[in-house]
Write a structure and sequence with these properties.
heterodimer, A: mainly alpha, two-stranded antiparallel sheet, B: 370 residues, alpha/beta, D-Maltodextrin-Binding Protein, domain 2, 2 domains, five-stranded mixed beta sheet, 17 helices, disordered N terminus
Chain lengths: 514, 370
C-alpha cells in the first residue's frame, strides 16, 4: 500500500484517539444509539439535524461526529427487531426473520450476542476493504450500470420469493403485490399520479416506515394477542432462557466463511450508488439460505439467518463511503446527507478529498470503525437487561410495543394517517402469517421497486439507442443465471429428492420381498 | 412625542390626546409585530427541498437554515421530497396551508418547462406560489465524461454531423428540457434524450460510463467533478459575468467557450444553422433570462401580506449578511440574490422568453417520453 495512504491512516488514527477528539466519537455514538432506538429514526435524520449546528465546526470534530453517527445507528435497529419483531430501520427487516424466532425460543442472549459480534466484525471488514480500495475507488464505483441494477433488483426479488419459506409461487405473488403497491403515488419520471384514488395521503406513495412497522411489528402484536402467548420467549424467568452471549459470539467464528461472504456482499452492495441500505442484508440472507443445505432452519431461528444480514448491514457502511468519497456520489441516503455536510464545509469529495484531505478521510473512517465497536460492546454489556424483556408478560409488554410502533409512525411525518396505514398493514401482515403467506417478499419488493422501475426504463432506452448491449455484459449474465437458479432450482431439487426417495423405497421394498 | 407635550403647562397639556396618541402608536407597533413574524413562533416551519440530500438545492437550503432560524426566531425543519425533477416537492409547497409554516426552494425554470408537459401536474411558479426571493442563479454547463473521446465543443459538433448527440437528463421538472433544445437549435445539433438519471451523481456516472455523450449540470454541482478531472466542460450555456459564481468555479471554467456573445459558439455556427445574428442573440438572451429566474424561495400562494413581507425581509437580510456570504463562499456556493419583487420580475421575463421556444421544448419533452 502506498506510503501516503499508510501515513494518513496512522495520522487519522492518532487524531481519533487523542484528547479531546476521542469524546466526539463517544458522544456521537451514544447520540446515534439513542436516536436509532426509536423505530423509523436513523442516522440520516440525525446528521440532517446536526448540519446547521456544526456549520462553524472545524473539520476534524465534524468528521468524528458524522463518522460516529453512521457507525452508531445500525445496531440498535437490530435489537428491536430481535426482541420485538420491530425493524428499527428497513434494513433490519431481514434481521427479524431469524432473530425474533430465536427470542421466541428463549435464545435472545444468543441472538443479541451474534448480532453484536457480526455487526462489529462486519463493519471492520467493510472498513478495511474500503481502505484497501482507496487507490481503486473510482473504478470500483463505476462497475455497474442500469442493466446491472435492473438485474440486481430482479435477482433480489426472486431470491426472497424463492427462499422466504413455503411455496415459491406464494412468494412471487407477494413480491408482485409489493411491486404493485410501490407504484402508488407520483410517477417518478412524469409526476403523474398513479393509483391514489383521490387520496392526498397516497400522493407520495406508501412510506416504508408505516408499512414495515405494520407488516412486522403490529402483525406480531395481533398474533400475540390472539394466541394469548404469555411471554415473547415462552419463559417466565431469566434462568429459563437458554443460550448465552458467548454462544452468539462464537457462532460468527463457527460460520466464518459465511460471515466473510456476507460482509463482502454488504461492502459491494453498499458501494453501489443508489441501491439503498436495505438491499445488502436481504441479499446476504438469500445467499446464506441458498448455501445452507438441508440442515437449515431458516425462518425458524437459524443463527446463520441472523449472522449473515447483520454482517452485511454493517459492512455496507464502509462500502457506501467508496463512491461518496471517491466521486462525490452518495451510496445511500446517509452518505448523501454526509455529502451535503462536507460540501457546506468546503470539502469536495473526489480526487481532491483523496489527495489533499486524506487524513480527514481516515478520521471519518476510524470514527466509523470505533463507533461500530462501541455500539456492539455496549450491546453485549446490556444483553441481560435486554433479554429479560423476553420474559416479561405480554400483557405488560404489548402496550410498550404498540406505543413504540405508533411513535415510530408519528415521528416520521407527524401524520395520523401513517398510524392508520400501519394498522391496516398490520392486519394484512397478520392474515398473511396466519395463512402461511410470506411477508418478506412484500417488504423487499416495496424497497426494490424504485430501483427496478428506474433502471428498467433506462436499460430499455439505452438498449433501444444501442448505447448498451444487454446480453453481452458479464455481470448481467451472471445475475440472469443466478435468477434462473432461484426460480427453478427449488422445483428441480424437490423433483430429484422425490425421485431419490422413490428409488430408496423401491429398493428397500425389493430387499424385503427377497 | 412625550417631550412634545411636556413643554405645555400642566393645566394646558392635552394629556388625554397625547396619551391616547402614544398608546395608539405603541399599540400599532405591537400589532404589526404581532401579526407578522411573531405569528410564526411556536411550531416549527417546514422547508421543502425538491431534491435528494446532498445536491445543490439541499446545500443552499441547509446553508440558509441557521440564518433564517435566527432571523425568524423559529425552528426550521428541512424535508427532502425528491421525484419527477423537483415537481413533487414543488407540489408539496403549493398544496400546503398558506400560514407561513411551509416554505421551500424551487427550480423556477424547471417548473416553467414542466408546465409544458401534456396534462401537466406541475405547479406554475407564476401563479401557485408566493415568491419570497431568489437565492441563486443556475450557471449551466455542458459536460462530457473524460473517456468519451470528446475533447471539446468542436469535436462534439463534428460528431453531431454524423449522428445525434445523446444527452442524459433528469425528469419532468428538469430545466434540461429548456437547455437542451435551445442549445441544440443554436448549434444546429441533432440530439436524442435519455431521462431517468435522478441527481447530478447519476448523470455524472452515466457520462463517465459512456452511456450518454453529454450532460448538463449547474456549476455548483459540476465543480467537484471538473476539479477532479472526471468530467470535461465543453460549453458554458449561460453567460458567466452576470452569475454569482465562486472564485474556484470561475477558475475551473477558464478557457471553456460560451454559447452566446461576440465570441460565442452559436455565432460561429450560423453557417450550419442558417440562423441570423439576431436569432442567435435572441436565443442566447432568452437562455440567460430564463435561467436568471433561478432558485426561488417560495411559500404557498395567498400567503398573508404581513407574513409574506416578514419572511421576505428576513430572507433579504440574510442574503446580505456577511456571515452568510462567507459561509456560502466557504461551501463554494454562488449567491446571486434578488428580493421578492425583483424575483417576480425575473420570473415574468423568464416565462415570456420561454413561451417563444414552446415548439422546441415540447419536441424535446415528446422525444424524452418515447
Amino acid at each position: 500500500m502506498d506510503a501516503t495512504v499508510v501515513n494518513a491512516a496512522l495520522e487519522g488514527l492518532s487524531l481519533v484517539f487523542s484528547w479531546p477528539y476521542f469524546m466526539y466519537t463517544i458522544a456521537g455514538t451514544l447520540l446515534a444509539m439513542l436516536f436509532s432506538a426509536v423505530p423509523g429514526l436513523n442516522s440520516s435524520t440525525l446528521m440532517a439535524l446536526a448540519i446547521p449546528l456544526t456549520l462553524t465546526w472545524d473539520p476534524v470534530p465534524l468528521m468524528l461526529v458524522f463518522g460516529a453517527f453512521v457507525g452508531g445507528a445500525t445496531f440498535m435497529g437490530s435489537i428491536t427487531a430481535i426482541l420485538f419483531n420491530i425493524p428499527g430501520k428497513s434494513q433490519n427487516a431481514v434481521t427479524l426473520l431469524d432473530g425474533y424466532p430465536l427470542t421466541q425460543q428463549g435464545m435472545a442472549k444468543t441472538a443479541i450476542g451474534c448480532a453484536a459480534a457480526s455487526s462489529a466484525l462486519g463493519s471492520t471488514f467493510g472498513i478495511f476493504f474500503l481502505i484497501g480500495l482507496i487507490p481503486f475507488m473510482r473504478e470500483a464505483a463505476m462497475l455497474l450500470g442500469p442493466p446491472e441494477y435492473l438485474m440486481l433488483a430482479i435477482w433480489g426479488l426472486t431470491t426472497l420469493a424463492a427462499l422466504s419459506g413455503g411455496s415459491m409461487l406464494k412468494g412471487l405473488i407477494v413480491a408482485g403485490l409489493g411491486l404493485q403497491l410501490a407504484l402508488i403515488g407520483y410517477d417518478p419520471r412524469t409526476a403523474e399520479l398513479r393509483f391514489t384514488f383521490g387520496l392526498d395521503y397516497l400522493h407520495d406513495g406508501l412510506s416504508l416506515v408505516p408499512v414495515f412497522l405494520g407488516v412486522f411489528a403490529l402483525a406480531e402484536v395481533i398474533d400475540l394477542m390472539v394466541s394469548r402467548k404469555q411471554t415473547l420467549s415462552g419463559k417466565h424467568h431469566m434462568e429459563e432462557l437458554t443460550g448465552s452471549v458467548w454462544e452468539g459470539v462464537q457462532s460468527v467464528f463457527r460460520h466464518f466463511g459465511l460471515f466473510l461472504r456476507s460482509s463482502l456482499i454488504g461492502t459491494v452492495i453498499g458501494a453501489i450508488p443508489g441501491v439503498g441500505s436495505s438491499v445488502a442484508g436481504f441479499v446476504a440472507y438469500g445467499h446464506a439460505r441458498q448455501t445452507a443445505g438441508r440442515t437449515s432452519r431458516f425462518g425458524r431461528g437459524d443463527i446463520r439467518g441472523l449472522l449473515a444480514p447483520e454482517a452485511a448491514n454493517d459492512a455496507k457502511d464502509g462500502g457506501a463511503l467508496i463512491p461518496t468519497l471517491a466521486l462525490g456520489i452518495p451510496g445511500g441516503t446517509g452518505t448523501a446527507v454526509l455529502l451535503g455536510a462536507l460540501t457546506l464545509h468546503g470539502m469536495s469529495p473526489g480526487r481532491e478529498m483523496l489527495t489533499d484531505n486524506l487524513v480527514l478521510v481516515f478520521v471519518l473512517i476510524w470514527s466509523l470503525f470505533l463507533s461500530n465497536w462501541i455500539t456492539s460492546l455496549l450491546g453485549l454489556l446490556l444483553v441481560n437487561p435486554m433479554a429479560r424483556l423476553s420474559t416479561i408478560r405480554t400483557t405488560r409488554l404489548l402496550p410498550f410495543i404498540i406505543a413504540l410502533s405508533v411513535i415510530g409512525c408519528l415521528q416520521f411525518r407527524g401524520l395520523m394517517a401513517d398510524v392508520v396505514c400501519a394498522v391496516l398493514f398490520g392486519l394484512l401482515g397478520y392474515l398473511m402469517k396466519r395463512h402461511d403467506w410470506p411477508r418478506i417478499p412484500l417488504a423487499i419488493a416495496i424497497v426494490l421497486a424504485p430501483l427496478f422501475e428506474t433502471n428498467l426504463h433506462l436499460t430499455l432506452r439505452l438498449h433501444e439507442l444501442e448505447r448498451i448491449v444487454f446480453w453481452t455484459r458479464p455481470l448481467v449474465l451472471i445475475l440472469i443465471a443466478m435468477t434462473l437458479v432461484n426460480l427453478f432450482l427449488p422445483a428441480i431439487s424437490s423433483r430429484l429428492n422425490a425421485n431419490r426417495q422413490g428409488q430408496r423405497e423401491g429398493s428397500s421394498a425389493g430387499d424385503e420381498s427377497e | 412625542m412625550v417631550s412634545a407635550c411636556q413643554h405645555l403647562p400642566a393645566t394646558q397639556r392635552p394629556l388625554n390626546s397625547c396619551a391616547v396618541f402614544i398608546v395608539f402608536f405603541l399599540f400599532s407597533i405591537a400589532s404589526v409585530a404581532a401579526t407578522s413574524c411573531s405569528s410564526l413562533s411556536g411550531e416549527p416551519v417546514l422547508w421543502v427541498v425538491p431534491s435528494k440530500p446532498g445536491g445543490g438545492y439541499d446545500a443552499y437550503s441547509r446553508l440558509l437554515q441557521p440564518f433564517m432560524e435566527k432571523a425568524l426566531n423559529v425552528h426550521i425543519r428541512i424535508e427532502n421530497r425528491s421525484a419527477a425533477g423537483g415537481v413533487v416537492g414543488a407540489m408539496a409547497i403549493r398544496d400546503a396551508q398558506a400560514d407561513g409554516r411551509t416554505l421551500g426552494i424551487i427550480n423556477a425554470p424547471g417548473l416553467l418547462a414542466a408546465n409544458m408537459l401534456p396534462n401537466a401536474p406541475a405547479p406554475d411558479p407564476r401563479q401557485d406560489f408566493t415568491i419570497l426571493g431568489k437565492v441563486a442563479e443556475q450557471h449551466v454547463v455542458m459536460l462530457t465524461g473524460k473517456h468519451s473521446g470528446i475533447s471539446d465543443i468542436n469535436s462534439l459538433l463534428a460528431i453531431s454531423r454524423t449522428r445525434p448527440i445523446l444527452a442524459g437528463i433528469r425528469d419532468a421538472g428538469s430545466s434540461n428540457f429548456i437547455t437542451l433544445p435551445i442549445t441544440a437549435s443554436l448549434l444546429g445539433m441533432d440530439y436524442a434524450v435519455v431521462t431517468g438519471y435522478v441527481g447530478s451523481g447519476a448523470r455524472t456516472l452515466a457520462a463517465l460510463r459512456g452511456e450518454v455523450d453529454v450532460i448538463f449540470l449547474n456549476m455548483d454541482s459540476a465543480r467537484r467533478y471538473i476539479a477532479s478531472n472526471e468530467l470535461v466542460p465543453l460549453l458554458q450555456i449561460t453567460d458567466p459575468p452576470n452569475i454569482g459564481l465562486s472564485d474556484e468555479s470561475r477558475s475551473l471554467l477558464t478557457g471553456v467557450p460560451v454559447l452566446s456573445g461576440e465570441q460565442g459558439v452559436a455565432r460561429r455556427q450560423i453557417d450550419t444553422t442558417g440562423l441570423t445574428m439576431e436569432d442567435v442573440e435572441a436565443g442566447a438572451v432568452a437562455l440567460a433570462r430564463i435561467f436568471a429566474a433561478g432558485r426561488l424561495v417560495v411559500a404557498p400562494r395567498n400567503l398573508p401580506d404581513t407574513v409574506s413581507h416578514c419572511i421576505a425581509t428576513a430572507l433579504e437580510d440574510v442574503m446580505a449578511n456577511p456571515e452568510f456570504l462567507q459561509a456560502a463562499s466557504k461551501a463554494n456556493l454562488g449567491i446571486n440574490s434578488e428580493n421578492a419583487e425583483g424575483a417576480r420580475k425575473l420570473l415574468s421575463l423568464a416565462a415570456a422568453e420561454l413561451d417563444k421556444f414552446q415548439p422546441e421544448i415540447r419536441a424535446a419533452i415528446g422525444e424524452a417520453r418515447r
